[in-house]
Amino acid sequence: MGEEMPRHAWRPTCGPHGVPNDELVIVGLNPACVCYTCYSGSSCQDIDEDCMAGDRDAIVSMNAPWFLHHHAPPMRIGLGFGMPYRGSDVWIHPASKMDALSGALNARIRRLHSLCDNVPGGHAAYRHLILGAGATQLLSAALHARSYGRTGCVATAAAPYWGPFEEKITQAGSAAFWVQRAALNRTTPCVVEFVTRPNNPDGTPTGEPPLPGALPIFDLVYNWPAYGPVVLSSRDAPVAVAIFTASKILGHASSRFGWAFVNDEAIAKRMFEYIWANGRSSTDAQLRHAQTLGIVLDSYRASELVLHESRAAAAHTGGTAEGGSSSEMGSSVERPSSMDGVPASLPLMDWMRAQLIYRWDRLACAIRAGGRLAIASHGWHDDMAMDAGATHRHMFMWLRTRDGSDCEGYLSSIRVQAHGGATYGAPLRFCRLGVGVDRSSFDLVVERIERSNSRRNASVAVGRVRRRLRRGVRGGSTAASWRDDL
Predict the structure, then answer these.
(1) β-bridge pairing 241-245 and 215-219
(2) Distance set, CA 254 to CA 37, 74, 285, 288, 406 (Å)
C-alpha cells in the first residue's frame, strides 16, 4: 500500500495509548505524556476499566497520526502577535483589504473546496466568506441574519436532526423559537430551516427538501469526500448560506474555527455583526488553521507529483500507472487491516476515507455478532446487509436496539458513550455512536461491545441447554443431543 507511517512518529516512550506534548513543554510544563481517554501513567500504560470509552460529539482525533507524519515545525506564536481586537479579518469580501493571514485563509479554504468540489454552485459563486468560532457560532449567526427584522420567526429541521439546533443554536441565534417540523402550519409567517447534507445523525444523503417558502441554512460540515461521494457540488444551485467547520475534517475541535459561504451582502453583514458581538474565532486559531490547511494542500501536491512521475515512468516503459483523481478521492484506497496499514503519505481525504471504511466494517462485525443492536444509518438493513449504492461512512454510526429498549442506556451499561435518540428528535431505541476517536479509544469501544456479545451469547447457550435438559428429562433424550447446543 505504499509508504507506511514511521513508527517514530508516535514517540514510543508514551506507548500506543498516548503522545508527548511538545507544546506544553514550550510554555514550561513538562508532562511525561498526554494519555488518551481511559489511560494514565507515566507511559499511558494503565487502563481504567470503569472509564466511559468512545465519544458523544463526533470528534476526529483519529487524524492525529496523519498530522504527526506530515510534521511541520512546531507553531510558535510570539507574545506580541495578534494583540488588537481586529488582528485579522473575519468577513472576507471583494472590497475588503485582507491582511496576509486572512488572504492565506481565503485562498487555502477555496483551494481545498476546489479540490473536493463540495460547495453548492462552486465556491466562486459566493462573494463573501465569513470566519467564525466553529459551526455552532456560524449557525447561530446565520439564524440571526436570516430572521433579522422579521416577526414571528420559528426555526425547525426535519427529524432526526442534530440536537443543538434546538437546544443551543435557536436559543443563542435570535428571537426565533423552535417548532417541530411536523407541527408547523401554513400560517407561520417566517420559518428558518436547518438543512443538513448529508444528514446528521442518520447519514441520509438528501433527506426531505426544505419547506416551501422557508429560509434555509445549509449545514454542510460532513459534505466532504472523506465520508463518501459529496451530496452537493458545483453542479447544484448556490444556496443562501453554506456552513463548514474545520473540526469535522481536520480534527482540531478545541481551536474553534469554521467558515460560511454567503452571497447576499446583507446576510453577510448581519452574520459578521453577530460574530463580533459573540466572540470571534481568535487570531491564534486562524493562524493554526492557515498552517494546517497549508499542510493538507501540500499533501495533494505531493500526491499529484508522485502520480505524474508514475505515469511518466509507465509511459516510458509501456506499462500503466495506478492512481485516482481528486474528484474520486478515496475510491482507489485499499481497505486497511490496521491503522498502520494505511499509508500516512496519502492526501488527508484518502486517509480519512480508508480509516472510516476499516472502522465501520470492524464495528459492523462486532454489532452483527451480538444481535442486540442494528445499524440504522442510511442504506443498512435488519440483516446487517448494506445497499450497493450506500457508500457513505460518517464520523458517527446511527444505531438502534432490535428489541426497542434504550440504546444509549444499553451502551452506557457496557461503559460505551453514545448520544440517545431524544437528542435528535428520535425515539430512545436509537442512538449515535462516534467512530472518529483515537485508535486506543476505538479499540476499547469494539472490545466492550464484543465482550457484551460474549456474555449474552453464553447466557443464550446456557438457556438452550437448560431447556433441552428439561425436555430430555421428560422425553428421555440422550446427553449427546443437548451438548450440540453448547
Answers:
(1) parallel
(2) 16, 18, 9, 12, 31
Report whether pLDDT(223) > 90.
yes
Of all residues in the chain, the percent with pLDDT exceeding 90 is 46
371 sits in the region (left: phi over 0; alpha: psi -120 to 50; else beta) called: left
**Quick check: helix, strand or coil at residue 258?**
strand
Grid cell locating 418: 453514545
CB 83 within 8 A of CB 195: no
Can you tell me the distance from the alpha carbon of 339 to that of 107, in angstroms, rounded to the nearest whole number?
32
Residue 485 pLDDT greater than 50, yes or no: no
Predicted local distance difference test score (pLDDT) of residue 184: 87
Secondary structure percentages of the chain, helix, strand, coil, to 5: 45, 15, 45
Three-class SS string for 268-300?
Answer: HHHHHHHHHHCCCCCHHHHHHHHHHHHHHHHHH
Q: What is the mean pLDDT of residues 451-462?
A: 68
Q: Which residues contact 115 (CB under 8 A, 6 or more apart)?
A: 297, 300, 326, 329
pLDDT tens column, 430-445: 999 999 999 999 999 9
Distance of CA 60 to the CA centre of its chain: 6
Q: Which of 162-166, 324-328, 402-406 is predicted least confidently?
A: 324-328
Give me the residue label for grid cell 442506556.
Answer: 409
